[in-house]
Specification:
The structure holds two protein chains of two kinds.
Chain A: H1 6-14, E1 32-38, H2 42-55, E2 60-63, E3 79-80, H3 87-101, H4 103-107, E4 118-122, H5 125-140, E5 146-149, H6 150-156, E6 172-176, E7 180-181, H7 184-197, E8 201-203, E9 208-214, E10 217-223, E11 226-235, H8 241-247, E12 255-267, E13 275-278, E14 283-287, E15 292-303, H9 311-324, E16 333-344, E17 350-353, E18 359-363, H10 369-386, H11 400-403
Parallel strand pairs in A: 1-2, 1-11, 2-8, 4-13, 11-18
Antiparallel strand pairs in A: 3-7, 4-6, 5-6, 9-10, 10-11, 12-15, 12-16, 13-14, 14-15, 17-18
Chain B: E1 2-5, E2 9-12, E3 17-21, H1 34-42, E4 50-56, E5 64-70, E6 76-81, H2 88-97
Antiparallel strand pairs in B: 1-2, 3-4, 4-5, 5-6
The chains are: A alpha/beta, B alpha+beta.
GO molecular function, one term (chain B): sarcosine oxidase activity
Pfam family, one (chain B): SoxD
Organism (chain B): Mesorhizobium ciceri
């Protein structure tokens, strides 16, 4: 029976909310597991959940150096979409979208998934043509996409400056209606609870310091809370991928770590009920249920493991916001923060067995990892359980770069700061 | 973040363009060693700590700079011209020859 229901809420409210169980246990690590997942972020927790649920593998530990949700799962701007151009990406992200659509029900945890749409603005006729091409590519694979005219856009987002005197006048846009936002913390907590209730040990404040080996094979990890052995060790550590792989003796990866900033304003009355992106720079914005505008832009553009950025990007993001919404000029920004992104060489992720025997790798999410959370966990769990990729993640190998099989949706080349 | 350009002195990061990892070595253009080319194009050390990188002072003197910067703290410990013989010294040498 569902742990959270209208009845349980009412019953617990009448009893003063004293009988709720913690959403997950705080176990001490056991000496060994079938699978260890390094990284208690969205992807690691989703992987643990699907390993237990889809594959019946419950003797699993998720080891996290901080607390759950302290990394990128709690630092993103919460947008969920599947509006990609290349088939490998479209199929994968659409699978994610379908999992999102049922996620609150599946987890019995309200992740506040809101399909409010995501609109990419076009500012030149050529860009509009390009969006038509991407929209057609999406529809070809069964994903919803529609072109919107300036008038339709103005009706949808009244605050948007669509005048001809705008700095970059709006020509039209590409809308994915099924896209939207979700409450990012709830995603981590929901997966954590779902995994915990199926027997997965979630071990917080447990930093991996090295790998145990049995000959060539990875056979466990050394941590700040002792050695833990496992038949399979899965790595899902996003921006820390380089550091963790170096502990395993892998010096170079097709990854650079970069910092991405995000911002939130004071709460406003309902202002925008969709996700909107700017086409002449890099800017995206939505409004949370609390009323704050959540927005961001480009990564800072240089390698960084610091979870904070510099002022030039702040300045650029604010300028872009005002180019679209001059009326926001006097709204105050409340907070800004940074997260470390694992920027891959083609802008697409890596979900694969290897590169060492006994090891499994999930990384390269650039700054699009949040929307991928369900499919990433689902595909990674499949790969770990069956020792081979699912069709959906088969293209996302680690060796695709050296084999000339890159999946470069934006066509930027091996230039991580531009993806 | 300030970068101290050897020509122009300390300047804000906004004047500079990041040109990426300075550890990479480009193979000889005639080389047909695919592994070496692949490694040059795709593989990165990506250290958490001191990182050798190339910046260009694109909003200033336009010199290419070899910078050692800590990726955890953004602290810059050294800045030099990307080529040892770059800039005025090299130009003077060329003039001497002429």
């Amino acid at each position: 029976m569902a742990e959270y229901s209208a009845f349980s809420l009412l019953a617990n409210a009448l009893k003063g909310n004293k009988d709720w169980k913690p959403a997950w246990r705080k176990p001490d690590p056991k000496a060994s597991y079938d699978v260890i997942i390094i990284g208690g972020g969205g992807h690691g927790l989703a992987t643990a959940y699907y390993l237990a649920k889809e594959h019946g593998i419950t003797n699993v530990a998720v080891v996290e150096k901080g607390w759950l949700g302290s990394g990128n799962v709690g630092r993103n701007t919460t947008a969920v979409r599947s509006n990609y151009l290349l088939p490998a990406n479209t199929r994968f992200y659409e699978h994610s979208m379908k999992l999102w659509e049922n996620l609150s029900h599946e987890l019995n945890y309200n992740v506040m998934f809101s399909q409010r749409g995501c609109l990419n603005l076009a500012h030149t006729p050529a860009q509009f043509d390009d969006y038509a091409r991407r929209g057609n590519a999406m529809r070809h694979l069964g994903v919803d996409a529609e072109l919107m005219t300036k008038t339709e856009i103005k009706r949808l987002i009244p605050a948007l400056d669509i005048s001809d005197s705008a700095r970059f006048p709006v020509v039209g846009g590409l809308m994915q209606r099924r896209a939207g936002t979700a409450r990012h913390d709830a995603v981590a907590w929901g997966y954590a609870r779902g995994a915990d209730r199926r027997g997965v040990d979630i071990i917080e404040n447990c930093e991996v310091t090295g790998f145990l080996r049995d000959g060539d094979r990875i056979s466990g990890v050394t941590t700040s809370r002792g050695d833990i052995r496992a038949r399979k060790v899965a790595v899902a550590v996003a921006g820390s991928t380089g550091r963790v792989m170096q502990m395993a003796g892998i010096e170079t990866m097709p990854i650079e770590s970069h910092v991405l900033q995000a911002f939130v304003t004071e709460s406003l009355k309902p202002f925008i009920d969709t996700v909107v992106t700017f086409g002449m720079g890099h800017f995206y914005m939505s409004q949370s249920d609390k009323g704050g505008l959540i927005y961001g832009g480009d990564i800072d553009g240089y390698n960084s493991y610091a979870q904070r950025g510099n002022l030039p990007v702040v300045d650029e993001v604010m300028s872009e916001m005002l180019a679209l919404f001059p009326g926001l000029a006097r709204v105050r920004m409340l907070r800004s923060w940074g997260g470390v992104c694992d920027m891959s060489m083609d802008g697409s992720p890596i979900i694969t067995a290897g590169p060492l025997p006994g090891m499994y790798l999930n990384c390269g999410w650039c700054y699009g990892g949040f929307k991928a959370t369900p499919a990433s966990g689902w595909c990674f769990a499949w790969t770990i359980a069956k020792d081979q990729p699912h069709d959906l993640n088969a293209p996302f190998t680690l060796d695709r770069f050296h084999r000339g099989l890159v999946i470069d949706d934006k066509g930027q080349g091996a230039n991580p700061r531009l993806h | 973040m300030l970068i101290t350009c050897p020509y122009c002195g300390p300047r804000d990061v906004i004047e500079f363009t990041y040109q990426g990892d300075g550890n990479r070595e480009r193979p000889d253009p005639a080389s047909q060693n695919f592994e070496a080319w692949n490694a040059y194009v795709y593989d990165r050390l990506n250290p958490a700590g001191d990182h050798n990188e190339i910046w260009q002072h694109s909003g200033g003197c336009r010199a290419h700079l070899k910078v050692v910067r800590n990726t955890l703290t953004h602290e810059i410990s050294s800045v030099a011209f990307a080529r040892g013989d770059h800039g005025s010294a090299a130009r003077h040498k060329a003039e001497d020859k002429a």
